[in-house]
Amino acid sequence: MRRTALLASAALLTGLLPLLSAGAATADEPAPVPVDRFEGEVPFANPPAGGLFTWGGDADDPPALALTTRTDAPEGTKVLTGTYDISGYGGFTHDFAFDQPAHDWSAHKGIRFWWDGQNNAKKVAFEIKDGGANGEASELWTTSFTDDFTGWKQIEIPFTDFTYRTDYQPVGGIDQVLGLTQMWGYALTLPVGVKGRFAMDDVELYGKADQSLRASVTTDSAVHPVKEGATATVKLSVATTGAAPIDEPVTVAYESAGGSAEPGKDYTPVKGEITFPAGTASGATRTIQVPTLRDKSAEPAETIPLKLTVTGAKAPAETPQIVIDAHGLPYLDPKLPVKKRVADLVSRMSLEEKAGQMTQAERGALTAQGDIATYDLGSLLSGGGSTPTPNTPEAWAKMIDAFQLRAQATRFQIPLIYGVDAVHGHNNLTGATIMPHNIGIGATRDPRLAERTGSVTAAEVRATGIPWDFAPCLCVTRDERWGRSYESFGEDPALVESMETMIQGLQGAANGKDLKDNDKVLATAKHFVGDGGTEYGSSTTGSYTIDQGVTKVTRQQLEAVHLAPYQTAVDRGIGSVMPSYSSLDILGDGQGPVKMHARADMINGVLKDRMGFDGFVISDWQAIDQIPGDYASDVRTSINAGLDMIMVPYAYKDFRTTLVDEVRAGRISEARVNDAVSRILTQKFKLGLFEKPYADTSGAAAIGSAGHRAVAREAAAKSQVLLKNAAGVLPLKKSQKVYVAGSNADDLGNQTGGWTITWQGASGKHTDGTTILQGMRNAGGDVTYSKDASAPTSGYDVGVVVVGETPYAEGVGDVGNGNDLALTPADQAAVDKVCAAMKCAVLIVSGRPQLIGDRLGEIDALVASWLPGTEGDGVADVLYGKRAFTGQLPVTWPKSESQLPINVGDASYDPQFPYGWGLTTLTKVPGGGEATLRALTLLARTADRTGSARLGRAAVTQARLLVQQSTGSTITPALAKPFAEADHLLLTAHYTQALTKLLEAYRAG
Prior knowledge:
Helix content is 25%, strand content 21%. It is α/β, with parallel strands linked by helices.
């Protein structure tokens, strides 16, 4: 893409600025039209209101803006100033108000503004918004200028310099014509990796539109694959600003020239001219046909560029290419074993092509879509919140198909493998079915249900053209201060292993035979290894306190706690593994803390060699940058440690070049590269991407369907853990008058948590679903709602107060990084007021336990609701007794933050509620005390002897319920410790030992 801007005006002496009018117009052109003067006429406001607003990749990336009075202002007295320190991406936008008509800029030549140069040699992207319903659903057209000067300078950008942003959606564009008659504003993307400031003033439209450049010629596609011997057809269209007929003739001279195909042998050369006469309607099309020739040779793909010379209009941004499909080569034969197909393809590839396969870029970071072929990219991803606009299944599929089409222009037409973080449903897609986060799935203790949630997720993800999911997280969370706690199934490796049935839901059969199906995706076990065990205060990433920190363990602890789930994943046929950002410090090995992305002993030695993992290893987002050393060292260290594909969202060009250089220098062996590429290609073949690279959208109708939401509803219901239920307050009766309060009762965003539509998630409604309040109403309850409990509380039978956390993800949610485990003052006040006025049940919607002990005495019923997803009806199902409460704590519920970390098996164990705790409703709990426990012990012995898991689980469950019911209001350490250990023993199929522990707990109670 042409991204240069015309820097038309030289810097002016500050003293002369007031004397010179940037708005002066010559006689033959219109007067400049102000867009922004920055004198206060345009507010700082978010869409749909008109105004200036900032945005960025994370909380630190949006710049800080101000209107500042300056004596050197080029126009007026104030200028727009800002400071920035961007690690991902960030900038600011001026959107016009959505409820007002769009603006017409078509009479002008371009847009200009004053910029206070800092001479930092950095490029600043400038974009304008054209067409669509509003400024956030429009096409983006982009160019850039370089800040290589000092002081004020007027930047003039003709509209002809702007190119269509193919990576921005609406997918495929509205018309891909810069119409200028329906403009919605502009945006600037500021430089990354430099701490800076800027000042800007007087944005205005200038000059007279050049009528000869108001027309443009476009092609239907930049890439035209065709079978050998068939005829390729390229469509040309002419379009004009405002869709008026063209004033003068437009001619397009065309010629097939260059490329890897040989004229006369592979195709019949074409040359000619097409004319669109004056008066031709905007949108008119003509076609050019290029016949290809059949021969008897097996060949890779060959390209035929179609050179276009346009007179009287703007030419297409890219030269269209006809691609004669690769044919006759063994790797293309689906009847051959995958291993043979891989070996054949790898033997044909150049080092550069192999390096491309090992490279993964963020879709929004592509300089141009043509880079997919130029750099032989093997993979793209959508980071959290990187979505098409509109965010619909159709748009996702169309976007990914456009990327796959680009891969067809490579020599071997190796399809991309596109990945997303679908960690609790297809959570990037508006309207998808959002499951409870993994912490809630762990609370269900239902492996079959975990598998079904994976199946729904896979079906919805694959229906949008995505074959790869960065899930499930197999972290064993050991400290609730960790901002990723909710991504874990629990604190017990045995619980995590039991929930790995989700892998089969995502992938199907362990041998990979189902991966080609249109409802399965490649799964990813993450984050290898020890991400859940990082020590509080050990993180060195920004303001994080525990995420991406250091896990300090003995070898035995590492094996028993953190590594155990990965062997299970390998046995289940997991297709990819992602290492952790964190460092591993194995006590006594003499290495100290080493970043996991650099640990060859763990990735090559344990994962691949000892465990027998035969999939491929994908890095985390920019994670190799955290390895000590320069960039070349980062690349060779990570690849030699066993990483096969590197997620380099923005640095894909540098990574590929560096990897090739390191191999040529002998610092990375060709054998290592061949192994990595073979592993990647193996999964692409298993996924059927070579035969079907494009989206199969036949399952799209099921996205967010009643059937899928029924699974999520069941998961939400079974995830609810009843911690206390004095006097049988729950379940509620429909005849009761219920007073509902609390910040999370009617907030779908808080209910779904982080990793929902955007990376961090957000409060409020951002997708389709049912809040807990609405679920209660749907259940037929007589409900009155007052969020802050300010409404009168008299006359009610029972209160339900729904409190907890607001969304966060990763280290942004770390305790100590602006977060704690206490309820907010508003939530505390709501609990206090409602529970003082009536019997009350408190539901805690959160990604981890909250400290509630100081209020436990005034609360009659307490429920750990976790983050239940979009189906609030599931929560209402257990509240109103449609389903029984059956959930159990997947983590220990602490009394205070000073106890952390606290986990099952600790020598000292004094929690508020122990791991495995969970009362039930609608279920007859056995009586008989110790005599019943002894009888259940006999059943457990029988189960151990006969290997009957069903009998063993039934015996332990009955004993657990008996012990819970017999417990008083105080859970002592003497009861809590054996109780928690019994649940671990149940999960490891030691039924008699579990009964022995429960008998011990009963006697302590």
